[in-house]
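Complex 177.
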Amino acid sequence: MSAPPKPEILLTKEEIEKQVARLAQEISRDYQGKYPLLLGILKGSFVFMADIIRLLEIPVEIDFVRLSSYGSSRVTSAKIKVVQGLHTPVKGRDVLVIEDIVDTGLTVGYFLDYLRKKRASSLKLCTLFNKPSRRIIPVPIDYLGLTIPNRFVVGYGLDYNERFRNLPDLYFVDGCS
Ligand code: IMP
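Predicted structure with inosinic acid bound:
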């Protein structure tokens, strides 16, 4: 296997933690008195989900779905598929989707459409990172960590060919977008 490209730091773990703490405060404030269902999109959101739920001041239920988008080729196909489905009933729940990064918008746009048909009481989206310059379909983001430049990033759960998810900071890797 060839050596992975050399990453260049974009955000330190302290800078990421600051955004996660701010988002947790906003969510705790807005969902006061409620018991939202947080739905994470695997695999990228697992680190963000693990960190944000421990900062929330409200009770939450969590579940994960796995959608196919990038695969190892890093090319977003217009066809998104549910690979591992949702097991928690959504009808009547306050649903908050937790995403690592919105890029073209195809993945989370598909998932929000899928959830709308399931008659949740409310449906919102929280994403840690946003790359609006590559958007193909509009996606309403209710809670946003940071907008980042149009370059491929890894670390804090995000991968390049399944590598780098374990890095605590966020890095650019060239030649991957
Ligand atoms: P979208 O469908 O193009 O919005 O892509 C969303 C998914 O693609 C995310 O959940 C990530 O898994 C992946 N993705 C998009 N941009 C990046 C990136 O810069 N690094 C790693 N994964 C990314």
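The beta strands are 8-11, 37-42, 61-68, 81-84, 94-102, 122-130, 143-147, 153-154, 170-172.
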